[in-house]
# Entry
Amino acid sequence: MSKSKLKFEPTVPNILTALRLAAVPLLAWFIWQWPTYQTEGFITFLLIWLTDLLDGWIARTFDKVTAFGKLFDPVVDKIFQITTAVMMFLVGRIPVWVPIFMIIRETIMIVGGWYLLQKRDTVVYSDLFGKAATFFYVLAFGALFWIPDDPRWLRDVIFFIPVTLSVAATINYAYKNRKSFSLKGPKHKRKAEAKE
# Structure
């Protein structure tokens, strides 16, 4: 995949993804005011997620899939999820291990993806495990807006499934790209695989 093909294209899906990114700071502010803007925060959260589904549907249905969009969309997803996790922790809605896990895991994925792009000219995209993890993270974070403060353990349990899927996605990513990581010498163009 040539890096020249990764420049922004102003298609409807890419514009919707950019709007999602712009809405993340507003979501963060609503959560920071917890519980004053609990409903507004949930609505913003829901709209960001629905826009994610919409831009993907438009891209596939109307043949508007771009190389940039394949990278840009999951990156915005991660910014959305990590921002929500950090803010929810800051207002006491989730335990600290959730944002810590997400930040460490995404740092590993970003570094690995950057290495493959820069050194191997290989672009990595979302796989089934990654998409499933994203879906269950969204369900868990959405539930956080409404589940009661007690029992406290419930706010740990709802993250077990997305965290497990994230680990599976990372292992799958490393396995599928093991040859790209191990090869030495000049860059090689390869089929993109497996990033959440």
Observations:
- Residues 26 and 99 are 19 Å apart (CA to CA).
- Helices lie at 12-32, 38-61, 67-90, 97-120, 128-144, 154-157, 160-176, 178-182.
- The first helix runs from residue 12 to 32.
